[in-house]
Every structure is written in structure tokens, then in C-alpha cells.
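Sample intake sheet
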Amino acid sequence: MIIVSIPEWIAFIGRFHPLAVHLPIGFFVIIVFFEILNKYSKIEISTEIVNVSLLITAFSATFACILGYSLSLEGGYNAEILEEHQWQGIGLAGVTWLIYLVHSNWIKSKFEAANFLYLPLLGFGFLLMMVAGHHGGNLTHGEAYLTENTPNPFRKWLGMPDKENKIVDNEVKTFIKDINQVLVYQDIVKPIFKQKCEQCHNASKMKGNLRMDDLELLKKGGKHGVIFKASNVEESEFINRILLPEADEEHMPPKGKNQINENELVILKWWIQQGASFDKKVSQLTVNDEVKPILAAIGGGASAAALVKQDKFVVEDAILTQSVSKVGQADIEIIKKAGGLILPLSQNNNYIELTFLNNPKFSDKDASLISTAPMQTLWLKLSNTQITDNSCEYIAKLSNLTRLHLENTKITDAALRAITPLQNLEYLNLTNTAVTDKGLMTLAPLKNLKKIYLWKTRVTGAGIENLKKNLPNLIVEIGINEGQMAELSKSKVDEKSDDVYKK
């Protein structure tokens, strides 16, 4: 595909095509409705009203064609479907002018045949409008947009394959019997791409010259090169685009589209961290502590139901009902310049998530930014950053904090002592840190703490038991339990046996 450089003003007006094209469509439908009323009802619509409606339709259809051509110069669309849609649009604009002329009193007085041409032309124009609209929808949303959510009973009647995935609460839920045997890309990652990305990156519409519905083209990337780097989340472009503020022009998916949710982002990052394989099963990858409950939920069953119950944060729910002021735009820009993001937790209040996941170089010298919004910050994510215990004095200022991510950082027991003022804390992730039993006991005063992650720490079973004496309802996650480990080990042994047999 050839990428054309176009003037900025042409690119600007072209973006109004999807808006402008609805005007002639609406008027055309009204005109058809008028004629049906005239023919089958006692209500009579005057010729003058129809004439004015036809004139508006013709002018607006022509204007929409001009804007559509401007938009097409940006590139990123299937050339064949684009050409068909373009000529159908031009043809429709021409037909609307012809319908207007044959309906005018002056033409009727000069040419008697005009009376007989009007209704056939109107019917032809209506059909052409539907075809052109369908091709326009294919360019914007993909060729399967109209049919992809066809219910299974109708799919059987139409000879279409059954749907393998079901969308529930904007998350891809796959019906899986054994999560260990699932192909990570095909069954978990690809459904996310299909639902959230392929609308703009498919065979019909290739924004940025990128296709994500074809495996080889996904690996190739778009006009800016590859979009992911195996085992390197920080240098994977599509992850960085997801983490940008939704208002940012580079944010993906674009504002207004179905967004990547938190669980899906965790899955995508995990897939990259584990090498971005296209043919490996879950049992062949390292299942980290953050992704484990998400995989359990995808697999369904009793474990998923238990996780839902465990993750009910009572204090957080209560705080969310209270009012706080909005974080200032100046503060949002300061955080953004430091490589962080301020994300709203809900449309109904001003509480936020503060995350520096997109800036692994974030360190103690920037730590004062953590307390930028002390009342509004409920979630804080400092995972994989360079912070140490020295940053925790700022964390302790977040009086309403309910969830804290410190995994894969350089913190020690001193950090745990520093955050004891956080009495609303319900979730704490300390995976892959240097904390010990001694530091763990300093968390005993945090009576609202419900869930803590201690995988790959220096904490022992005895230390965990001592903490649970003070916090008996605390759920402690230390990684894969013995039963899961045995199951994964068995899967790997079976696979190795298969390999030996094949050889």
C-alpha cells in the first residue's frame, strides 16, 4: 500500500466524513418515508417539502463525497473495497441530483417521462445507499462486523461456524476445561486482539498500515515497524500505546472504542514477558502471581468463584461513595511528563489510579510525585520501577490508598514499616522483593488488609503463620500451590513423553 503525504487541512476535513455522511442518509430515508405516506395514507406531504428534502440530500451527498475522498488520502484502507465504496458514493450523489431534477415541476412540465422515472430512481438510490453504507461499514469496522455476533442458532441455519468465544462485561471469556492445555496466543491473547484491536487493523481497514487479524502481518508490524518485542514489555510499542492517557491521540484503542481493561493488560504483558510465543500452552510458560487468578477465572470452575469472593474490597467500596475534589489538569500533566498516568477509577467520582508502569526508570528522585493527589489516589502501581525504601514516606501520605503494587522493586522491610499508616490498605503486592518475616510482622496493625502477594520473597511459612494470627482473614498468595505444581509438572512430563514418542 502506498502512503500518501497530504496537507494537514485535507487530513483535518477528511475526518468529518463519518459525521457528514449521516445527513444525506437521514434525508433519503425521510423522503422514502414521505412517499410511502403519500401512497398508502391520507396524510399528504407537499411537493415543495419533498423538493427541499431532495435538494438537501443532493448537496449533502456531494459534500460527503468530497470529505470521503479527503479521508481516503490518509491511506490505511483496503484498496479494492475503498474503490468500490468511493464509486458507489459518487454514484449515489449523482442519482440524488437526478432524482431531484426529475421531481422538479419544471422538468416534469418539459418531459412527461420524468413522472415515470422518479419512483424507480428513488428505489434504485435507496438500494445503492444501503450497498455503499455496507461497504463503508466494512472499511471502518471490518468485513465481519455485521455478522460476527450472530447467535449460534442462526449461525447454524446460515451455515456459519459456531462462536468459540463469548464477550462478558467487555472481557473475552473462553470456555476451557483445562487451562494448562490452552494455547496462550490462540485462545487467550488473540480473542483480546479480535475484540479490542482488529476493528481498526484488519484486511479492510489497516490504520498505520498494520493488520492484526493475520499472524504473519501481525509479526511484521505497521508503518512504524514491529509493535512488540519478545520478552521486553518496555520496548513493545502496542503496550506503550495502551498505557497512554485515553485522550492522547496515540492511545490505543482510540478514545470512544472498547478499551483494554486491567486484566487484559496483565495478560498481554505476561505474554510478552514470556517470549510472545504463538504456539505454546499455559503449562509451558511461567505463571506469575499476578496472572494466575486471571487464568483461573478464564478456566472457570470453583476456583474462579472463590476468587470473586476473595477480591471483594469493602473499605474501597465505602470510600468510593464519598466525594473528593477532581485532580487538577496541571497535576495530570506533571505526572504525564514523568512517565506516569492518572487513570479514573469510575465515571461517578474523582478517585484515581496512579501508575508508573510505563516508566521503569522512575526512582526515588521522582518520589515526591507519588503524593500529588493524596486524597484521590486509591490505587498505586510502582511495579518494576527503581524505587527503594526512601520513596515510602510519600506512599504513606496517601490516606485513602486501598491497593498498592510494589512487586519487582528494591524495597526491604523498612518500606513495610513506613507504610503502616495506610489503614485503608486492602491489597498489597510484594512479589520478588527482599522483604522478610521481620518486616512482614510490621503489617499486623493493618486490620483491613485482605490480600497480600509474597511470591519470590524471603518470607517463610512461619512468618506467614505469625502474621495470620493477627490477621486471620488475610489471603496470602505465595505462588503456585502443591496441587497446581503437580498438575503443571504432569503436563510437562506428558508433553516430553509425546516428543520422545514422535522422535
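Comment: The CA atoms of residues 138 and 145 lie 7 Å apart. Confidence is low (pLDDT under 50) at residues 165-175, 301-310, 480-493, 495-503.
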